[in-house]
Amino acid sequence: MGQDDEIRQGANPGLDPPDDTFRQLLAADRRTERGLLWRELIALAVVLAALLLRLRFGA
Amino acid sequence: MSLVEIALLTLVVLGMVPTLALFAQFLVVGVHGVRNHYARCGDYTPRVAFVLPAWNEAQVLGASIDSLMQLSYPAGAWRIYVVDDASTDATPEVLREKIARYPGSVFHLRREKGGEGKAHTLNHGLKHVLADDWAQAVMIMDADVLFEPTSLRRMTRHLADPQIASVTAYVKEGSDPGNLVTRFIAFEYIAAQAAARRAQNVGGTLACLAGGAQLHSRANLEAIGGRIDTSSLAEDTYTTFATQLAGRRVLFEGNAVVWAEEPDSLAALWKQRLRWARGNLQITRAFGRLWFRPWRHRGLGGIGFGIVWFSILLTPVLAVLSSIGLLGLYARGDAWAWAGFAAVWRITIAVYLFETLYAFLIDPATARRAWLQGLLFPGAISLAIMLALVVPSAWTGLAVDPTQPASGALRWLMPVMYAWNSLSMLAAWAVYRLEKAGLPNRLRDLLLVLVGYGAFMNAIAFAAMVAQWRKVEQRWDKTMKSGKARIPG
């Protein structure tokens, strides 16, 4: 990996004691984002069901 | 099919482009769950300089600085530079108090000539901040914005990847107490930010870094000249384009939340959005050599990005064209008139249902506060048209055969419905004028619910085109804030 591809870590490690905030936030936000995919599928399924119901029972 | 029929139907189809583009954007949002930037994030906490432009912001500045001092971030790794734009209110006194309370963290930069606009004020601050090498990143924000404690940390982690130049946060409407207008905005921001910007992340190109919270690496600011463009009314969008043209990426971080006070009247909202819309028209022209030319820039010149950009920009024009198409077919007694009308509105129903439901699921907290505004977003009249297409017996109740040219007492109804996408803009403009003339808020709310917030946005976009075309003088019209925003919980 060239220098431009390297991931920077803790620019100011001496300023504060290290904590686990980074990993906790990252894990929570990854869960949130993955959840969006499932929520989208739910929303699509509801709309499709509504359309099918309309086709089945609509005049 | 005759040439006239084909031409009129083409207009009808063109009118559907914004709806379909919106649908396509929402479809992509879920992909962000598996295609995002988190794999390249790092525990990176650069020294950050917050630059707050403040022109008579005494009512909001104190709370904003207090929220910044509550950030969960390494001690001493952030500073707040308030650029006082020759304020004539109590802004300097508020600042003096905060400087005394947070020594070494808050700094007062004073401009002697004020009121030139946010970009000029920011440039004064950027010049100062970039003059020494303390700042490794710069947060450009508005004076009223309240940061949630983890928001900065959620943004800086992306700058661990040197390819990322800038990150923007999710700006939520936080007025407490709010009203109908602010809750419409709250719902609008789910679609315009939480959804649309995630979709843009997936596509790799962002249309706009929110002016209320945009974090730049120092390298990026220096690469774009160390200053913000002052030629347009949309300086944040200009910065977004300039950054991406310089070859770096910008990102939206939907989990970094900041809160802002948005306009609570149609008059204030019109003023703010007219500035934004005129700014976007200026951007369209300034970057005219890019559109639909992927060989010039893969993202900004991409076909998909161009379609989304222009479908938003031209929504009011396309709505008018669609109405002309439908009314033309109707006037000819053409069978395609009803077929076109029904198709347009049935597609609109499906997209409305999907978009509204998904928006609620993307941001349930905002949905709890603004669910009614979400449902009423298109307006009660548009919803009635949709309902009439879903429940055919509604026509029987009205004694109207919608497939035939109307007759009798309701003969005016069909043309009005065929043209409603355009007429609603006119009606929304009338509500705005009535409010300015002193219409009581309760009546204004009732009328806004009838015509729809979406129609109001389209009316502003149309007015912006007219203003640009007539070369109406562009002034920096500041949105007045009163300090109503709160971080919930």
Provide a quick synopsis of the model:
With 59 residues, chain A is mainly α.
Task: Output the keywords.
heterodimer, A: 59 residues, 0% strand, B: alpha/beta, Spore Coat Polysaccharide Biosynthesis Protein SpsA, Chain A, 8-stranded mixed sheet, 8 strands, 11% strand
Describe the structure.
- Chain A is mainly alpha-helical.
- Chain A has a domain at 22-59.
- In chain A, 63% of the residues lie in helices and 0% in strands.
- Chain A has 1 helix and no strands.
- Chain A has one helix at 21-57.
- The longest helix of chain A has 37 residues, at 21-57.
- The radius of gyration of chain A is 23 Å and the shape is rod-shaped.
- The termini of chain A are far apart.
- Chain B has 489 residues and is an alpha/beta fold.
- Chain B folds into 2 domains: 3-20 and 310-469, no CATH class; 35-290, Alpha-Beta Complex (Spore Coat Polysaccharide Biosynthesis Protein SpsA, Chain A).
- Helices cover 54% and strands 11% of the residues of chain B.
- Chain B contains 20 helices and 8 strands.
- Chain B has helices at residues 3-15, 17-29, 58-69, 91-101, 118-129, 151-156, 180-203, 218-223, 235-245, 266-286, 303-313, 315-331, 335-362, 364-375, 380-390, 393-397, 413-418, 420-436, 441-451, 453-469; strands spanning 48-54, 78-84, 106-110, 137-141, 146-147, 164-173, 213-217, 249-260.
- Chain B has an 8-stranded mixed β-sheet with strand order 3-2-1-4-7-6-8-5, with helices on both faces.
- In chain B, helix 1 packs antiparallel against helix 12 and helix 2 (17-29) packs across helix 7.
- The radius of gyration of chain B is 24 Å and the shape is globular.
- Chain B starts with a helix and ends in a 20-residue tail after the last helix.
- The model of chain B has no long low-confidence stretch (mean pLDDT 93).
- Chain A binds chain B through residues 3-12, 15-16, 21-23, 25-26, 28-30, 32-44, 46-47, 50-51, 54, 58-59, and chain B through 26-27, 29-34, 36, 38, 40-47, 72, 74-77, 136, 150, 153-154, 157, 159-163, 198, 254-255, 350, 353-354, 357-358, 361-362, 390, 392-393.
